[in-house]
Amino acid sequence: xxxxxxxxxxxxxxxxxYSIGKGSFERSKHFAGRLCDALDIHPDRxxxxxxxxxxxxxxxxxxDSYLTKQEVKERIKRTIFRGGSTETGxxxxxxxxxxxxxxxxxxVPEVLIIISDGKSQGSTxxxxxxxxxxxxxxxxxGIKFPRWEELHVLASEPPERHLLFAGDADDAANGLYSTLxxxxxxxxxxxxxxxxxxxxxxxxxxxxxxxxxxxxxxGSKQPxxxxxxxxxxIRWKRVFIKHxxxxxxxxxxxxxxSQPCQNGGTCVPEGLDRYHCLCLLGYGGDVHCAAKLSLExxxxxxxxxxxxxxxxxxxxxRFKAFLKRFLQAVVGQDSPxxxxxxxxxxxxxxxxxxxxxxxxIGLMKxxxxxxxxxxxxxxxxxxxxxxxxxxRSTPVFADVQDDLPRVVVLLTDSKSQDSVAEAxxxxxxxxxxxxxxxxxxxxxxxxxxxxxxxxxxxxxxPQDLFNRMAELQxxxxxxxxxxxxxxxxxxLAFAVDASSGVGLENFLRLRHFVRxxxxxxxxxxxxxQIALVIYGSKxxxxxxxxxxxxxxxxxxxxxxxxFLGDSASAGTALLHVYSDVMTVQKGARPGVNKVVVLLTxxxxxxxxxxxxxxxxxxxxxxxxxxxxxxxxDTLLRVAGSPSYLVHISSYEDLQYYQGLIxxxxxxxxxxxxxxxxxxxxxxxxxxxxGPGSYRCECHGWExxxxxxxxxxxxxxxxxxxxxxxxxxxxxxxxxxxxxxxQHSKRQ
Length: 747
Hints:
With 747 residues, the chain is an alpha/beta fold. The chain has four domains: 2-201, 3-Layer(aba) Sandwich (Rossmann fold); 299-393 and 402-478, 3-Layer(aba) Sandwich (Rossmann fold), CATH 3.40.50.410; 490-669, von Willebrand factor, type A domain (Rossmann fold); 679-710, Laminin (Ribbon). The chain is 30% helix and 26% strand. The strands form seven sheets. Strands 3-2-1-4-5-6 form a six-stranded mixed sheet, sandwiched between helices. It has a six-stranded mixed sheet with strand order 13-12-11-14-15-16, with helices on both faces. The longest helix has 19 residues, at 312-330. Residues 394-401, 480-484, 713-738 and 740-747 have low confidence and may be disordered. Pfam families: EGF, hEGF, VWA. Residues 253-290, 672-707 form the EGF-like domain. This is von Willebrand factor A domain-containing protein 2. GO terms for molecular function: calcium ion binding; identical protein binding.
């Protein structure tokens, strides 16, 4: 809005002396750049030049050198501090002799902007008066802790309109424009006016102070005589001095003064009468950031509210207000969500049963009726109770079961007085999806409850809680609407360092990380298969890709994984994954992307590069997660690319990288697949690609994957498998073969 567009020559005179110092000189440059924002720099309008002065003046650039605002500001940034004494008078005499270098010879108004601390080592009064007599408008700008008396002498009349302070660049730029707006620049914008208001000029001065008296000895007129006396003790100290003054600033009506943006939106003015709103995620239903959240996913949703003494009445009422606002924003007339609300302290109550209300008005009335109870904080007992009783439903028909995803949103702001780990595990084993909401100091406990930092929402202050509504909506619907790799087919193997270099305590952290990572995947024969390998000097398969076909079975198996405790060999582990895990015999599916996640402290990596390269050559991604200090070059050789290497400083921070690691795995799950990598053909069979399919060329063996030896006479073949050695397979038929092969092995 404020920009001087007249024909005008502006010359900056920057103090580059030692009394300013390099730091304050950089601030002077920044301030000069900000003042340029109030000037319409153009060859036909405002031109800008600069002189730096200390012991002698130095022309940095004349007024006709740079003719756009961007060029001028870039050149100001490149100005180098020169140092020297503060000879302001000599700099003014230079201007009197040379004029404005590159200027238009007084045919247009001339403005001199002096940026200094006002501590000149010579007289400035006479040259300053001579400059002003030439009708040059002089602005004096104080930097650091200026000597305002000298700046008053330098500035044009009235000094209160020509004295500025560089400490507040925006305010000083306004002051410059306000003074120039009439009559130099074009008239003030409509609706704007120049107003004066009281202000202060501050500086730091050294003053003399009487600190007290001490006993001293003085001579006497009498010979050989001295007398005791009290002498003053003086000390010098630096104090802030404030000089009352008046400032003139241009005030314009702000279209954002009426606060038109709702729900935490930020109003951005566009000129004098227009604006637009920057809305928080989940808002923007109209230009004023109305709520546009919706729970279009189909879930059974139960809110579990902490009503204990630890959360306090104020906290309980805050949770109620948040719950009401959230449900008003997301629940519509045709919402597919079945809602319930429970509260707990010593005991658990479910005042709003799941699906009890079909309309928002009745739901709001029931939430209003919730009362604070104030007992002990038994979060573990509450989770156990909800897992057993919170989602009981009576279907209309006995043979119809409610198979919607079940989501529990825990709202708490008080540390539990009982154990939450076992109760949370029990709830997840009942296929409940847990989301935790609490303030920052609850982060660790909420992560323990949910098993995943990505399923926790922590807020920094009470108002911040209400800004998290869109985040909660996304987390609720992420379970009902699997996105990304949850819906992609993937064969995933974890190789976990269980050596003495990691130690038992840190191994348990790695095991917990694997467990919580598995919660991100739908585990069955058709979507994601997961294998787990632990290693020390030798590698052991805890379970293969085809061992477990459900999330709960995988989680139970992970909890039983033992610590080994000997030396580490990551190369042995990767070789084991290649030869004994990612194979058709062990359940690997041709046509499905394959990823190995190596979790290690970096020990025993010297022999890992070659097997890692072998895995990559066969289409298996190796993702390396290293905790602690290790040589990066070795790690890069194993990972193959910085994109597949995550270096974490401590085991405590591992959980915060889970989202990044899962995201990278998901990207791989969506990438194109080579059906012949890794080779699905057994017994040295050769895989030959066809359009959307492949076949195995066998030698001395037969079957779709060369799994049956050819015998003379009656051939002993696996049941249910065709005898031909050349069979074309497409990805659709691969899983049927895999199941048949497993059945034949069990037979």
